[in-house]
TrEMBL record:
<comment type="similarity">
    <text>Belongs to the diaminopimelate epimerase family.</text>
</comment>
<comment type="pathway">
    <text>Amino-acid biosynthesis; L-lysine biosynthesis via DAP pathway; DL-2,6-diaminopimelate from LL-2,6-diaminopimelate: step 1/1.</text>
</comment>
<protein>
    <recommendedName>
        <fullName>Diaminopimelate epimerase</fullName>
        <ecNumber>5.1.1.7</ecNumber>
    </recommendedName>
</protein>
<feature type="binding site">
    <location>
        <position position="170"/>
    </location>
    <ligand>
        <name>substrate</name>
    </ligand>
</feature>
<feature type="binding site">
    <location>
        <position position="65"/>
    </location>
    <ligand>
        <name>substrate</name>
    </ligand>
</feature>
<keyword id="KW-0028">Amino-acid biosynthesis</keyword>
<feature type="binding site">
    <location>
        <begin position="75"/>
        <end position="76"/>
    </location>
    <ligand>
        <name>substrate</name>
    </ligand>
</feature>
<dbReference type="Pfam" id="PF01678">
    <property type="entry name" value="DAP_epimerase"/>
</dbReference>
<dbReference type="InterPro" id="IPR001653">
    <property type="entry name" value="DAP_epimerase_DapF"/>
</dbReference>
<feature type="binding site">
    <location>
        <begin position="199"/>
        <end position="200"/>
    </location>
    <ligand>
        <name>substrate</name>
    </ligand>
</feature>
<feature type="binding site">
    <location>
        <begin position="188"/>
        <end position="189"/>
    </location>
    <ligand>
        <name>substrate</name>
    </ligand>
</feature>
<comment type="function">
    <text>Catalyzes the stereoinversion of LL-2,6-diaminopimelate (L,L-DAP) to meso-diaminopimelate (meso-DAP), a precursor of L-lysine and an essential component of the bacterial peptidoglycan.</text>
</comment>
<comment type="subunit">
    <text>Homodimer.</text>
</comment>
<keyword id="KW-0963">Cytoplasm</keyword>
<dbReference type="GO" id="GO:0008837">
    <property type="term" value="F:diaminopimelate epimerase activity"/>
</dbReference>
<keyword id="KW-0413">Isomerase</keyword>
<feature type="site" description="Could be important to modulate the pK values of the two catalytic cysteine residues">
    <location>
        <position position="188"/>
    </location>
</feature>
């Protein structure tokens, strides 16, 4: 059997994208998903996403981490899925779709996809750090020099901390660059390494930055480019009207024999 796929990337967070409207992809095959995401023996990606029909929405996105496991929300992957849906003719410039954490709205404006994120009820403070869920769980630590940091080592130490054993967490390191700009590097669970960008992580960091006095909209520099996060406080320690804005592009399309991977 041959699997047709598309490769997309959003600020360097890359995905194998499959049009699964006919339900032909064997998604329960964890080993297959993992091997498609392998950078040496497969296509290579941080995750795999299925675009599927849904009776109540324009489409549904189903996201798997590179380890083959069904994941939670993926902000960059969602922006890529919106671009993919538009290229397939499933939507025009506006989308209302379903993801792991519920309903999302999105707009396409030339190169940029503006994605509405789920409201955030609360932000937990852990010592000088923070922990919150923006569709996926994120630990956020502010540092003085994020470029000099060993994100793999330091991220892994927190990722496997006792506290997060059940399900684990993604780990973000943030540096404030100016009054309206931060620099974020993320260790992603499920990839078990640093990725060039993590959309739900960037969102989490911008929200925490506002608790430290910064105001919406916040520009976010990541290893793979630049994103923007806009939001409002809900007056009760949480946030609403959260938007993640940034580019999402198709890189190539292809087909691969399922028995190869
Ligand atoms: N890269 C994704 C996040 C994936 C989260 C996933 N690694 C997990 O929580 O297991 C993003 O752009 O939001």
């Amino acid at each position: 059997m041959a699997i047709s796929f598309y490769k997309y990337q959003g600020t360097g967070n890359d995905f194998v994208m499959v049009d699964n409207r006919k339900h032909t992809f064997p998604a329960e095959d964890e080993a297959l998903v993992k091997s498609l995401c392998d950078r040496r023996t497969g296509v290579g990606a941080d995750g795999l996403i299925l675009l599927q029909d849904h009776p109540d929405y324009d489409f549904e996105m189903v996201y798997y981490n590179a380890d083959g496991r069904l994941g939670s929300m993926c902000g960059n992957g969602a922006r890529c899925t919106v671009r993919f849906a538009r290229q397939l003719g499933v939507i025009e410039d506006v989308a209302c779709f379903l993801a792991a954490d519920g309903e999302h709205q999105a707009n396409v404006e030339r190169d940029l996809i503006q994605l509405k994120m789920t409201d955030v009820k609360d932000v937990e403070q852990i010592g000088e750090d923070y922990y919150l869920n923006t569709g996926s769980p994120h630990y956020v630590r502010f540092v003085d020099d994020v470029e000099a940091l060993d994100v793999y080592e330091e991220g892994q130490a927190i990722r496997y901390n006792e506290r997060f054993k059940e399900g684990g967490t993604n780990v973000n390191f943030v540096q404030r660059l100016s009054d309206n700009e931060i620099f974020v590097r993320t260790y992603e669970r499920g990839v078990e390494d640093e990725t060039l960008s993590c959309g739900t992580g960037v969102t989490a960091c911008a929200l925490v930055a506002s608790l430290k006095g910064m105001q919406s909209p916040i520009k976010v520099k990541v290893m793979g480019g630049e994103l923007q996060v806009a939001f409002e406080s809900n007056g009760e320690g949480g946030f609403k009207y959260i938007y993640l804005i940034g580019p999402a592009k198709q890189v190539f399309s292809g087909s691969i024999a399922a028995q190869i991977v």
